[in-house]
């Protein structure tokens, strides 16, 4: 368009100049579009008869592909050469990008039929291919099936654990039935200790036989998988023997070497006002069990201290508070799964629990821990999901009427009936929630009667039976016992028993376990008095079953407090 405009301008300009004097003239050549300009000073005249020649239009720009490239002989030769090179490259690279027939591999050797792999066709022509394949398959046999073997071992361990639990329950039921008609029933926990000792021996015998069977089965499985002798299993067994021999050089290492796996600590479970603080103090001060801190300080009702971590107590209160419960109300409705959901959903902060878990899950500790909080009887299942290692359990109990009277004196508007109900719930939940864990049983009365032997027995069973890491101390010092046991308490206990023996009998449960009459703030014939007595008799039945060992059975029938019809409304 620009060239057309220039032509039009020049045509108009030169047409207007035709015949002028002294003006510049131009001539257009037919064979060119060149414009020649001449001056009037050059003695040349302008031919007036000649008309100005219009410029011809320039050709349009090329719009077809052929306008750019002409298919002549050189270009065709280049195209044919490129095509030939491309086909040559494809032919050369075809063996590397194709897959061989996998069926031919099965006919080639037996190993290939088992291990199907994708490889280039050129692999067939590699020298020593069969040796490479055999070596690769041997490595796959050893390492490639580790996941399947681990899953198989896990399933086998679960099945054996289930069988062992069933056999253990049957053995436990046989032992309890066999000793139920004996001399069980004496106060002081002597018969309970006897039942515990018999049960422990049965459990140890069963566990020993089970470990031997697992060991033999594992060795047979290893030999079968390897197709011959398993040198790896021999090496592991030799290492274990050397480990045991080295650790028997000292007393603490002997237990670690014998059991190979240890428990980092234990928890003391028991109802409030049941002597758990005294028992924990004797174990901490006497043997050196570690509690961490900070701890709840001593108070008027417990001058020796509670040995309870503040963070654990506060976290248990938070667990219960989120479910509209507390240490003394609605504890029977506590749901451990709901507590974990509250933690995941952020309905509780779990700030104190994080601090406690740093102590309980600290694998660098060398001292066994002791965790004591009566609320743990209720909240134990929640903590078990948060702990790296399952703890051992030390369970203790006290006469239900003594606990109820102690609570009514310490708390305001706390009835004896309420204290008896809490006694049942706490002890029931302690045994139900700790089922399946290694447990050691004791009583508050047994500790008062013979503190030196009873506390020493507890420590020995925690170490030997439950495989708790041995504490620094081996024997309980006498001065620690004198520090924690107040002679006045022992004297008051004897006076209470003498006075109780003079009262009438409400119900005799056999074996010397009797429910005696007790003083009450309610009139004798009132409905509240009747409800109080009914709750007392339910608690005494459980207490007597603790004494004779029946309550420790997994199928023990606990009082149905949820459906118990109280004779009168609670004011």
What does the model show?
With 571 residues, this protein is of the alpha/beta class. Helices cover 55% and strands 6% of the residues. It is built from 21 helices and eight strands. It has helices at 2-16, 73-97, 102-108, 110-114, 129-144, 146-180, 190-226, 231-247, 251-259, 276-287, 310-321, 336-345, 351-360, 376-384, 400-410, 416-433, 444-449, 451-464, 478-484, 487-501, 527-548; strands at residues 25-28, 35-38, 265-269, 369-372, 392-397, 439-443, 505-508, 514-516. The strands form three sheets. It has a four-stranded parallel sheet. The longest helix is centred in the middle third of the chain and has 37 residues, at 190-226.
Question: What structural class do helix, strand and pairing data support?
Answer: alpha/beta
SSE string, helix = H, strand = E? HEEHHHHHHHHEHHHHEHEHHEHHHHEEH
The radius of gyration is 48 Å
Number of helices: 21
How is the largest sheet built, in terms of strand order? 4-3-5-6
Tell me the total number of β-strands: 8
Bin the strand percentage. 5-15%
Binned, the helix content reads 40-55%
Overall residue-averaged pLDDT value: 76
Largest sheet: 4 strands, parallel
Terminal CA distance: 109 Å
Residue runs with pLDDT of under 50 for 5 or more positions: 19-51, 99-122, 180-187, 224-232, 248-260
The shape is: elongated
